Amino acid sequence: MTKVTMVVNGKSVSAETEGRTLLSGYLREGLGLTGTHVGCDTSQCGACVVHVNGKAVKSCTIFAQDVAGAEVRTIEGMANADGSLGVVQQAFQDHHGLQCGFCTPGMVMSSAALLAENPKPTEAEVRHYLEGNICRCTGYHNIVKAVLAASGQDIAAIPAE
Amino acid sequence: MYDFEFVKPSTIAEATKALAGDGAQALSGGQTLLPTMKQRLAAPGTLVSLNGIAEMKGVCKGDGGLHIGAATPHAVVAKEAAAHYPALAALANGIGDPAVRNRGTLGGSVANNDPAACYPSAVLASGATVVTNKRKIAADDYFQGMFTTALEEGEFITEIAFPIPQKAAYVKFNQPASRFALTGVFVAKYADGVRVAVTGASNDGVFRWKEAEAALSKDFSAAALSGLTVDSSDFIHDLHGTPAYRGNLVKVLTARAVAAA
Asked: What would the pLDDT profile of B107-121 be if each residue is shown by its tens digit?
């Protein structure tokens, strides 16, 4: 076992790992941060997306030891300092951007990464960027609306279908 | 997956030493290798991460054209190659999805040589030079069939140098579930002729469509392709497409790439 230290959501943390320990397992089992979900475990679904050094990545397809020392942000780090929901999270709640909620952590992390790169995306850009995040409730329309609303754009013109 | 020893060298020399051991396997972005290991189709004793080697990262112009470090993620190539080789940057920007592009690397893709991967077509169509920890390999000698390359035991790609074409484009027909190319064509026009590389079609992996190269070298227009036929007898047959379907795609996509270049 090898002790791996990272900065997760602004705090220096460490946990024991094997070579094969995935970043998703390190977060969930090593640190108890179970907000990061593992849907498919094959890097298709995007439920496990977290930010590593500011970039969205699929934590089920990275070894924990390969990102030792990195700055990691998970869904647990998306709320405001006072515990209220962050902008993207609040938009998902306001616009019903979740149904069962399983994909939501990955959707929020990918959406936040998109808005960091592209603060005012078009609807097409949002859909394209979320290509690697699958919602099996098929609630994509409201997810896209939520992301556009989180970017401060008027979503009244977008049809509800 | 089976457990292994993980090592992360910080120089090419250290990585060469680590990979000389029995059962050692290089790890780059891991976007293919990790799923393969989860399925127990690969079970290395030691995994040598190439992600901590600064000299293997980055995009810069040099004598060989555009030099890209093998450990450079697709997202970085998409951004930094855009001003120098737009077709290559666009290809990088179409691989997988944004999270995969932040992790997967040029060297990893080219070392794996998946028959439906995008990058091998750019390397072959550009007549690029694959630089390893041991030697330089011309693209025409590098690709040797599905998942097969000229790389020897303990050898890994450190950089790829892409001569910059006058015009180029890559057009792929997406396989929407895997986001690999169902078939993809990279066309590159250089002063001494046109090169056309096809991925996702042949059971032998990426290949050059030489008849199209000859026709396009004389007349760089989609019309120049009209009389050509594609021999699809050894093409991939799966539930997404028959060999004849892929053969037709090769022609259609080549014409689209010429028009887009």
From this structure: 999 999 999 999 999
